[in-house]
Design brief:
mainly alpha, 3 strands, 3-stranded antiparallel β-sheet, single chain, 9 helices
């Protein structure tokens, strides 16, 4: 049995500019998630902690009032980094459901550091929360869109943008919120999920709604309001 990885790497070529990921079956039949990087292949478990070890996060979530010492915070940060890699890989292979599951855990772990760690670790977590919220929003939108719920996906993006604004101010970048690349990308995603009426048609519906309210035709007003909400 040869120890070099040439045949394995040749069968899973690296493509620059994209996340090269796949799900395969292990020798014991379990699913594993692999990511091809320039110098090799990363392999992660699909469930539990990505490296297969004991989860630091699970223990902390079971003890919500316990302070997080620096050594344990370092262990948690390592687990969160692994989770973030797995979220991105699950999105790349078209599995937004498991990506969202991991993104929820990633956000929960970040909040643990924000609330229980020493000040230096909290500062890191406050800065990291912004990127985590972006990732979680993308996962939720992808999961809803995959199930055919485009309107709900657009609403999820809007809710994510609200959380992102709060995270931006906590991270000290709130004043630049509307110009941030992640914010612009999420807004573009939201607009792509639900086709928009031309401005003239929207304006016509809004004018009819105002006229219906003024004439106290509340039944028509309710219908027109629903039409506008569906746009």
């Amino acid at each position: 049995m040869t120890s070099d990885l040439d045949s394995l790497l040749d069968g899973f070529p690296f493509e620059p500019g994209r996340v090269n990921a796949r799900i395969v079956r292990g020798s014991d039949g379990r699913e594993v998630l692999q990511v091809r990087v320039e110098l090799g292949i990363l392999q992660m478990e699909c469930d539990g902690r990505p490296d297969g070890g004991d989860s630091t996060l699970d223990g902390l979530l079971r003890a919500p009032n316990r302070v997080l010492p620096p050594d344990e915070a370092a262990q948690l940060r390592l687990e969160l980094a692994q989770l973030q890699q797995r979220v991105v890989a699950f999105l790349a292979v078209g599995d937004p459901g498991r990506a969202l599951r991991d993104a929820e855990r990633l956000l929960a772990g970040t909040e643990v550091v924000c609330q229980r760690a020493v000040p230096a670790e909290r500062e890191w977590a406050e800065g990291a929360r912004f990127s985590v919220v972006v990732l979680r929003t993308r996962c939720e939108a992808a999961s809803l869109s995959r199930s055919g719920r485009a309107r709900a996906a657009a609403d999820a993006v809007d809710a994510g943008l609200d959380r992102l604004r709060d995270a931006a101010f906590r991270a000290g970048i709130g004043d630049a919120f509307d110009t941030l690349g992640d914010v612009l990308a999420l807004r573009a995603l939201r607009d792509s999920l639900v086709p928009q009426l031309p401005p003239a048609q929207r304006a016509e519906l809004e004018a009819r709604l105002r006229a219906a309210v003024l004439s106290e035709n509340f039944e028509l007003a309710a219908i027109l309001r629903d039409e506008l909400r569906l746009l």
